[in-house]
Amino acid sequence: MPFPGSAPPGPSGSSGTSVPPGPARPPAGPGERAAGRTGLVLAVLSAVLLWLVAAAWSPLLSFDRSVARALHRRAVREPDLVQVNRILTDWVWDPWTMRLLIAAAVLWLWFRRERLLSVYTTAAVLLAWAIQQSLKAGVGRKRPQWPDPVDSAHFAAFPSGHAMVAAVVCVLLLWLLRRHGLRGRAWAAAVTAAAVSVVGVGLTRLYLGVHWPTDVLAGWLMGTGWALLAVAAYPWVEERVRSRTPGSSNAVGGGAGPAG
Prior knowledge:
By secondary structure, the protein is an all-alpha fold. The chain has one domain (30-243). 69% of the residues lie in helices and 0% in strands.
């Protein structure tokens, strides 16, 4: 039985003049197609949320204010928990921590001679950052203001940079781990760690009173959606590169199978 991406066997008794095989990598598999569909759904939801926030839809703003006030009142009464959340948001799940993780993965791919995958992952992260910064500047939403703040943050609020960076990085890291054979309990542990990180960093930003709930929701939707669309697009990019640079399979793809 041929491995995914290998040329199918020729008919019995054929001469050695068969047509040369095409690119080793097959078109997008079921996992990548599902990632694309999910990414499109999340992109649509992100666009709807962006429109509602930009239009200052009063029911949504009222919801934001009520949740933010309730969480802030609790945070003021719990200084020890505030300190725990500060450590989590400023060190464990800080955007620079996430960027260092994906940078380590990119370097690892590069030294394994999976150059296209390394460059593609870097480009996906950089484009996500550009989208995030453009939206912050374009929407210009102010952060919650409190007479007795427990933490502070700068720049515009929408979308949450912490939540979006965590979503992009964690989804891409899971994709890379899956491509390179992570399965079983190790895979379950990786998925759990990623989910806890993405959800956890958003909750810390809300608890510390530096974001509205819809800022965090937008970061989750946009970051996850963008990363899934990047996953779905990679087979097409890889096939195009292979077709233009024959004989360079190590540099472009590395030999890992399709995402599961």
